[in-house]
Amino acid sequence: DEGNFSIGITEYFSGPPQAPQTPDAYQSAINASFGANASAVLAEYPLSDYGNNTQLAYNRVSTDPSACRSLHVEKLWAQRVPLYAYEFNYEDAPYYFPQMPGFKAGAAHTIDIQFLFPNWHGGPLGVNLDQSSGKPRELNNQESKLSDQLVAAWTNFAKTGNPNGKGNSPWPRFTTNAQTFLSQNLQLSTLSATDYRTIYKCDFWDPLLTY
């Protein structure tokens, strides 16, 4: 949900009172961003597919092409250096924007920082807020377990060049022949590049992107 970071900033500074993006503004934003390809993007991401929720739709439009670009770069890197790819996709972590109409951060850009650095609080409030209740909270027990796993992985990577310390479990190496991501969620798992491409509609985006 990378796009939700920018969407949240835009909505936060739309008020007070804050207001979500309107359908007309959604179409205008896509026209401005994609020019001659805007009609194709609107057809691929119609608001009706997202319950007419502009935030959900624009998050995908903002997130998906960047995800496909990342995959392209990872394939190039894998030809030259040992590579370990990941996706942080836990959607219920505390966030540092107050509750706003229709907005849920999900796994927004920067939301994983609190899992890697102790007592990290972002945003002007200086506190992390539960995405459902809007009340301040720290990581719960399950989230703290994920935090411990990620801190260990980054420490191992800094020390040995391998986030596992040794071997390729639970974080598999991403190679040209085995393109696999670590899915960073409460239960660690793996994600194939084939599934990744489906999630982010890379068959649609590849012809439109400049690599």
Total strand segments: 3
Secondary structural class: mainly alpha
* Main sheet: strands, sense, barrel: 3 strands, mixed
For the termini, the CA-CA separation is 22 Å
Percentage of residues in helical conformation: 40-55%
Instruction: Give me the Rg, rounded.
Output: 18 Å
Total of DSSP H or I helical runs spanning 4+ residues = 7
Low-confidence stretches: none
- Assembly status: single chain
How large is the share of residues in beta strands? Answer: 5-15%
Shape estimate: flat
Mean pLDDT score, rounded? 95
Strand order of the largest sheet: 1-2-3
SSE order, one letter for each helix or strand: HHHHEHEEHH
Written overview of the protein:
The protein is mainly alpha-helical and 211 residues long. The chain has 7 helices and 3 strands. It has a 3-stranded mixed β-sheet. The longest helix has 25 residues. The radius of gyration is 18 Å and the shape is flat.
Short characterization:
The protein is built from seven helices and three strands. It has 211 residues and is mostly helical.
Write a concise keyword list for the protein shown above.
211 residues; three-stranded mixed beta sheet; mainly alpha; 6% strand; 3 strands
Strands, helices and their partners?
Elements: H1 3-12, H2 23-34, H3 38-44, H4 54-78, E1 85-88, H5 141-160, E2 180-184, E3 189-192, H6 193-199, H7 202-205
Parallel strand pairs: 1-2
Antiparallel strand pairs: 2-3
Helix pairs in contact: 2-3
